[in-house]
Amino acid sequence: MITWRVAVLLGIVGGAAVAVAALADAGGSAWLWWALLAAVLLVAGVTALDWWAAVPLSDVRLGRGGPTQVRLGESVTVRLTVTNRSNRHLRAVVRDAWVPSAGAQGPYAHDVDAGPGQTRAIDTTLIPTRRGDRPAARVTVRSYGPAGLAYRQTGRRHAARATPRWTVTALPPFTSRRFLPEKLSRLRVIDGQVVTRGRGQGTEFDSLRDYVIGDDVRSIDWRGSARREHVAVKQWRPERDRRVLCVLDTGRTSAGRVGTVAPGAPDQVGEGDALAGEPRLDAAIDAALLLAALASHADDRVDLLACDTEVRASVSTSVKRTLLPRLTKALAGLTPALVETDFGRVVAEVLRLERKRALVVLFTTLDPGALGEGLLPVLPQLVAKHTVIVAAVHDPSLEALAAGRGTAARLHTAAAAEKALAELARVRAALARAGVQVVDAPAHRFASDVADLYLSLKAAGRL
């Protein structure tokens, strides 16, 4: 292929040839045409020679290196290496293309100048805009000749074969981890408040110690005392290895975005504010990660299930150090499905996974249609065997819209918002009558409220 320089060179050479022909024979036109033909042939020959001198693309080797994971909103740098394996000098332009959601920063193309056997590196900074796998799309190499008149370029198929495969996984941002130190401090206080003497709810045997005056005689271990030849009592500690199951509803309601409204500014709510904020599923993922981290520090076993009409993700692990990495990896590519959640299938999966009594935290929405027809009929089966929490992200724009006044349009909007709030209250009351704990909080404190309820249940010995 040729560049714009060929046209410039042809203009210069052709103009010079025409000028020479005009001076040689001012009255004839044959010299003019022969001069133009000679100019075209000369430029074509020089261009062909320049194309031949360009480094063949088969002698260019590409490599890739760098991190393969990054939290959403953070940046990562991936390096592309270009190696010249020919005996010619490589002058090339390289385009390292990624999918748009990878958020590639920097120039569109990169100039590469490498001698025989040399390697050059191209760094691309990625700031992903979506969770999940963000693959490299295609690397296109354009090798120029010494004069820059012609170039060799990889075709689509060859570029796809030559492109080194690389995928950067955008993990959930886990912004709620800022609450973790405070929650762990409360957890230590709760563990210290549990009575260690005597038999109490939510405790299990820890060890034996010598009897001292004031100990409850019911704590004496007579067999252990016989073996020790002196009186020994049992010590109890808070019961460990409780089971916590986080269930994420990935149906159509999880795709809804929760509006963000500044406190005290209800009149500033507009029609486009419903698109602000984050999807309900992202807030649920953030809260589930905080709860999992907190429960794992309490030596509880944490499992995760994401389901709508089918199981989208399932994580079960008893190893504490691998819990969060496995959870974040499983949740990275989780996306809402535009289907109605089958709560019968969800409850069946929960009962199959957790045969012992467990704390089941269902991250969903308090939508009356979805819960009234789907969850409430099958909820008794779940409550009979497990302690259940229904956690939903509250949309603060409802209160803001309900407070709107001034015009007829705002008044009708306020009435609709009041009706929606009343329906949410009825759903919460129905869940409470069924023995379910409910968390209905805005996104900025949703994860914290879920963790607080877990700690409250743990302090009360109700897990």
From TrEMBL:
Entry's transmembrane regions: 31-54
Keywords from the UniProt entry: Membrane, Transmembrane, Transmembrane helix
Matches recorded under Pfam families: DUF58
Domain DUF58: 208-432
Keyword Transmembrane helix included in the entry's annotation: yes
Protein's name in the database: DUF58 domain-containing protein
